[in-house]
Amino acid sequence: RDSILTYIMTLGVRQQYRRQGIATVLVKEVLTRLKNLADVKGVYLHVMASNKRAIKFYEMLGFGCCEFIPHYYSIMGHFQNAYCYILYMHDGQPPPSPLQVILNSLRGVFSYLYTLWVYVYIATKSKIRHTPSRDNM
User: Fold this and answer.
1) What SS3 class is residue 72?
2) CB-CB contact of 87 with 42 (8 Å)
3) 8 A C-beta contact, residue 41 and residue 4
4) DSSP secondary structure string for all residues of 80-129
5) pLDDT digits 0-9 by tens, 1-45
6) b/e sequence 46-67, b meaning 16+ C-beta within 10 Å
7) Residues in a beta bridge with 82
8) Residue 21 and residue 23: Cα distance in Å, rounded?
9) Residue 38 DSSP class
10) How far apart (Å, rounded) are the C-alpha atoms in residues 47 and 12?
11) Contact 51, 85 (CB under 8 A)
């Protein structure tokens, strides 16, 4: 089956109602509902890099930064950088980085070469040990 990621597109609380736990209740409700859906492997969102309060909020809820995106937002003609934050669930995990793919491939190659070397070494040793010498004939 395919894995599903849920995207939180917008989360905002009016100025006069901020710092009262409303956003926390909203996000926790989304997370609670998603915990019943085993196919959902993560929840992600974008946040302006300059919004330190929101970044701290998402990190407090367990989200982690997975990407920096320059010029993601255009607000009144001005570009703003963003971060992508994600919270993995149900054994979800990030895709491997190109370096991880290379290292895993090399690990497989080295494992194969080591196994081959051990096989050749043991085969060579056993031939040497079991080969009768001409003096014993």
Assistant:
1) strand
2) yes
3) yes
4) EEEEEEEEE-TT--PPPPHHHHHHHHHHHHHHHHHHHHHHHHHHHHHHHH
5) 567 888 899 888 999 998 999 999 999 999 999 988 888 888 999
6) bbebeeeebbebbeeeebeeee
7) 48, 69
8) 6
9) T
10) 11
11) no
Report the chain's terminal Cα–Cα distance, integer Å: 67
Q: How far apart are CA 49 and CA 40, in angstroms?
A: 26
* CA–CA distance, 135 with 43 (Å, rounded to integer): 76
What is the pLDDT at residue 135?
59
CA-nearest of 56, 27, 67 to 43 is 27
Query: What's the one-letter identity of residue 120?
Result: V
Q: In what order do the strands lie in the sheet with 40-48?
A: 4-8, 40-48, 78-88, 64-75
- Respond yes or no: is residue 72 known to be catalytic: no
**Which token pair is 48?**
């302006």
- Report residue 49 as tokens: 């890099």
Structure tokens at 61: 């809820």
| List 46, 73, 88, 90, catalytic entry | 46
What pTM value is reported for the model?
0.64
7 has catalytic annotation? yes
